[in-house]
Every structure is written in C-alpha cells, then in structure tokens.
From TrEMBL:
UniProt-recorded name of the protein: Flavin-dependent monooxygenase
EC number: 1.14.13.-
Lineage: Bacteria, Bacillati, Actinomycetota, Actinomycetes, Kitasatosporales
Substrates-to-products reaction catalysed: a tetracycline + NADPH + O2 + H(+) = an 11a-hydroxytetracycline + NADP(+) + H2O
Binding positions for NADPH per the UniProt entry: R40
Gene3D superfamilies cross-referenced by the UniProt entry: FAD/NAD(P)-binding domain (3.50.50.60)
Cofactor: FAD
Length: 374
C-alpha cells in the first residue's frame, strides 16, 4: 500500500514534492494557510540554477513550462558605487546557467501541474503532535485535524512541524531588507531605470546596500539592506509610507539621486523584511514519519540559493520515497543524508557572500569576486 503523504506548506518546495510524488503515483495532500493562490504577492524574481533548481524541475517534468516563463536578459548584472559609477558590468548573453523567472509564475506552473484538490487552501496549522509509531496529528486554526503516517514540513521559517524534529529556532542575523517597487520606470523614472539596466544593479557599502531588479516590463523591484538591530526598525512607523521611505533613504545621504529614487519615488509602500537564519549546520536525529524541506529545514539569510534548495529538497525527497516503496524510514534517511551537508555548505557560503557584500571591503570584494579576481 502506497503511503499517503501530508505536506504542510504550498511554497515552491512543497509543490515540487507534491508534483514528483504525483508522477510516481503517490496520494498526496498539501495544506496551506493562505486562503487562495492569490492571497498575497509571491515575491519578485528568482534565478533558477542549472545545478539544483533546474534539476528539481526536470524531476518534476516541467522544464518546457519553465522555459516558457524565463525573462530574457535578466541575468545582466552591474555593480555601481554610491555616485552611480559602474564598477563592473556583466551582460546577459544567453549562456548563463541562472535564468530569471517571476516567483509567482513559477508557483503557478507548479500548481497547474497538480490534480484539482491536491492543495487545501485556508488550512493554517496551529499545532502538530506525535501519536507514536510514526503517526502524527495536525491541528488547524479552525479546530479540525488530520492524521498522517508521513508528515513533511514545507512551512518555512516559522515551521510548525520543525519542533517535532528539532529545538532550533531562527535567530535574527543583524540585517533587514526593505522592499518596494517602481512601475513604468522607463517612462516615469528614466534615470533610475538606466542606472538599474536590464537585469540586476547592486550599489553596496559596508553595512548597507541598494539593489534594483528589473522584473517584467518596466517594473523595478527594490531591495534596501541595512545592518541595524530590530529595535532600530521598530522605531520607524511603516504605516506612514512616505515617512518610512524618507527615514530609510536618510541612511544613504549623499548617494546618487537616481539610486535613492528607488526608495523615495517608490509606487508601493516600503515593506520591512527582517532576516533570520537557523544554525548553518542545523540537523536532527531521524524521527519516524516526519521530515522537513526548504526553509523549515535550513533557513538562511537570502543568498540566491533558498528557493533552489527548497525545490531540490522536494524533488529528492519525492525520488527517495519512490525508490524505497513500502519503507518510509529508509526513504527519509536517504533524503536527509545528503541534504544536511548540502544545506550547511550553502549557508556557510552565503555567510561569506554577505561579508563580501556588506563587510569592510564592500563593494570591492564583490567586484573582485565577479571579475574573477576573488
């Protein structure tokens, strides 16, 4: 008898897992707290790597659909100084292994690949408990419950499933990101659009940075990074969009106006996103009938690998279950064994990247790295 798999969380990792399991004939249900696929915006652009994220999509048999949502030219990259002078520029010649897509579009093709009813929307988890012998009970906010013999936590940073396996809790990494958007940028903000270019632009300095990313059409997505304690951000009233934007922009006094305009001229209110991480080498002892994927397993500060690793986790777990029919524990052990060192290496490499981006040698460290000198 094929085990019914219960997945908590309809992010990219959980959906890839559901898709791979579906291809192998496993019954699967995904429970998601959001009310619908459009309940909130799904973030910006993702670069999907040929050594992890694309491998997951191959296992999910969705490469053709993936190629259909790639935004050409978005792998272009430039570093500029605080005055807007270009320090290094790399064009997108179509040969890079990290094509860019919109997260929402990637999630859409995954959802469309699943049978109707696979994802149960509006099921926010309030608690999970072990029933023994590998069985678990999941309780939802409305008081309803479900019992399962195979529970997968794909529920992100503040996973409700993680406490079954680990006592680790995310810690604030000392930096936060403030996001906003400019629309019709080429028409209404031509100097800023020119500064960003056709892909990504990074203006970095010790402890801070302004990053612009060109999405579909003339939309620019801004990420402002500041190394400040949470209390510093708590003193800003983000319900007053203009005042909050002005306060964030004040940290970049003297920078080129075409760069600070990404903050001050935004068409959307600034959104604060504190950054948290689990210990780099987070792992757990094998717990019968349960495991974790994605940020629930190995949350780290954004380093370009998070979504890719989550999808690879989902694909590899699905393949492990298919390769060990009737032996869930062997499958979970086979999945976790390579996942632990892989995610630890990504986290450690990400910490090194953050030091290059925002440490004392910024921005030269990043320029050297991308010019082949680092």
């Amino acid at each position: 008898m094929t085990t019914h798999v219960t997945i908590i969380g309809a992010g990219l990792g959980g959906l890839v897992l559901a898709r791979v399991l579906h291809l192998h004939g496993f019954p699967v249900t995904v429970y998601e707290g959001e009310a619908s696929p459009t309940a909130r915006t799904q973030g910006g652009m993702l670069d999907i790597h040929d050594y992890n994220g694309q491998l997951a999509l191959q296992d999910a048999d969705l490469m053709e659909e993936f190629r259909g949502i790639i935004l050409e030219g978005r792998q272009a990259l430039r570093f500029v100084d605080r005055d807007g002078n270009v320090l290094l520029e790399k064009a997108d010649d179509g040969t890079g292994g990290r094509p860019e897509v919109q997260r929402a579009e990637l999630r859409r093709i995954l959802l469309e690949s699943l049978p109707d009813g696979t994802v149960r929307w509006g099921h926010k988890v309030s608690g999970v408990r072990s029933l023994g012998a590998g069985a678990h009970e999941v309780t939802f906010a409305d008081g309803s419950t479900v019992t399962t013999d195979l529970l997968v936590g794909a529920d992100g940073a503040w996973s409700k499933v993680r406490p079954l396996l680990s006592g680790a809790k995310p810690r604030y990494v000392g930096s936060s990101v403030v996001e906003s958007h400019l629309y019709d940028a080429d028409t209404r903000h031509s100097a800023t659009a020119k500064a960003v270019g056709g892909g990504s632009m990074l203006a970095l300095a010790p402890g801070k940075g302004i990053m612009g990313h060109r999405e579909r059409g003339e939309t620019l997505h801004t990420y402002v990074s500041l190394a400040r304690p949470q209390e510093w951000f708590a003193a800003i009233d983000f319900t007053d969009a203009d005042a909050a934007a002005a306060r964030i922009a004040a940290e970049f006094e003297g920078w080129a106006p075409e760069l600070t305009a990404l903050i001050t001229d935004a068409d959307t209110a600034p959104v604060l996103r504190p950054l948290f991480a689990l210990p780099a080498e987070h792992r757990w002892e094998r717990v019968p009938g349960a495991t974790l994927i994605g940020d629930a397993a190995h949350l780290s500060a954004p380093n370009g690998e998070g979504a890719n690793l989550a999808m690879l986790d989902g694909a590899e777990l699905g393949q492990a279950l298919a390769a060990h029919p009737g032996d869930v524990e062997a499958a979970l052990a086979a999945y976790e064994r390579p996942m632990f060192p892989r995610s630890a290496k990504a986290a450690i490499d990400g910490d090194k990247l953050y030091e290059l981006m925002y440490g004392a040698e910024s921005p030269q460290g990043m320029v050297d790295l991308f010019s082949g000198q680092g």
